[in-house]
Specification:
8 helices, 25% strand, 26% helix, elongated, alpha/beta, seven-stranded mixed sheet, six-stranded antiparallel sheet
Length: 319
């Protein structure tokens, strides 16, 4: 199968690497424009662009993916340019693969070619922008990957292939996302292999009665609110590590980044909710139910450090 790949993030880059390693190597990779990044705000190419360049793939970075120029670029990627630009490709000629692109795809591109989307959840659970994070936050025992037809709705298109992936109690975003990306790449290749053999995938509509939404991670989602139990806050830390990061607000109004924690459900040590204390050399944070032991923290303007190092160099509020 001839393919064009649309993606942006690290997750999408991992899927692209699997796709490019086989017979469905993309004719063209489309990704987002370079953006300022880091403390120096240097212009940086997205992960997909960096990987595509290393692999020697053609790359386009349009300002707007729905501009006519994007459709024309995809048209030029077809076999021998047999189809007129804007016409729907024949089944088996060209498939557009979409994975974590980060922008809404609209008409006419939406209907011009068969579009397959790799979504890291077992749809219809966790439609939306942050399915991996929300599955971890909710304490789900498993998640997975769905290969679906992209439609105008929010991840509402029919699914042709899906597979589960268990979530361990120790999983973070950093450990779970690579496994899902690997699974997504394998499922995608299976679908494309079948299409290449003249066996187009059979799609099944999603059950709308089972829909849940994975809203984008907002600033308030990062804050460890002590009104919640310690176990719930532990899941938040795992869900946001290492790409976003959780934080808590100290009694003096300053914030402290939190990278690794352990919930102590039956061990509050008489800490009030929101109190941060040194208890026998352990950095504990009181919650409404149990305590949260902070194992690795990130002070403002500093570097990540173990809790013991933080206690040696910082005076706790109220101490």
């Amino acid at each position: 199968m001839r393919t064009v790949f649309l993606g942006t993030s690290d997750f999408a880059a991992a899927v692209l690497e699997r796709l490019a390693a086989g017979p469905h190597r993309p004719e063209l990779v489309i990704t987002r424009p370079d953006r300022p990044s880091g403390r120096g705000r240097r212009l940086t190419a997205p992960p997909v662009a960096q990987l595509a360049n290393r692999l020697g793939l053609a790359v386009a970075q349009p300002q707007q993916v729905n501009d006519p120029e994007t459709l024309q670029a995809i048209g030029r990627a077809e076999v021998g340019e047999r189809a007129e630009v804007g016409e729907r490709a024949e089944v088996g000629e060209l498939v557009v693969v979409v994975c974590a692109f980060g922008a809404l795809i609209k008409e006419p591109l939406l209907s011009a070619y068969p579009l397959l989307n790799i979504h890291p959840s077992l749809l219809p659970r966790w439609r939306g922008a942050a399915p991996i994070e929300r599955a971890l936050m909710a304490g789900d025992a498993e998640t997975g990957v769905s290969i679906m037809r992209l439609t105008a709705g929010l991840d509402s298109g029919p699914v042709c292939l899906a597979a589960p992936e268990p979530i361990s109690p120790q999983d973070t975003y950093g450990s779970l996302a690579p496994r899902l990306a690997q699974l997504g790449g394998e499922l995608l290749v299976r679908v494309l292999d079948g299409s290449g053999r003249g066996e187009p995938p059979a799609f099944t509509e999603q059950d709308e009665t089972r829909v849940t939404y994975a809203e984008k991670i907002a600033p308030q989602d990062r804050v460890l609110d002590p009104v919640h139990p310690a176990r719930q806050l532990e899941r938040v830390v795992r869900a946001l590590h290492p790409h976003i990061g959780a934080r808590l607000t100290l009694e003096d109004g300053t914030t402290l980044g939190v990278r690794r924690v352990q919930a102590l459900p039956g061990d509050s040590r008489h800490l009030s909710a929101g109190a941060l204390a040194d208890v026998d050399g352990r950095l504990l944070y009181g919650t409404s139910e149990g305590a949260l032991e902070l194992l690795e923290v990130l002070p403002p303007g500093g570097r990540a450090m173990e809790a013991a190092s933080y206690l040696r160099g910082h005076e706790l509020p109220g101490a």
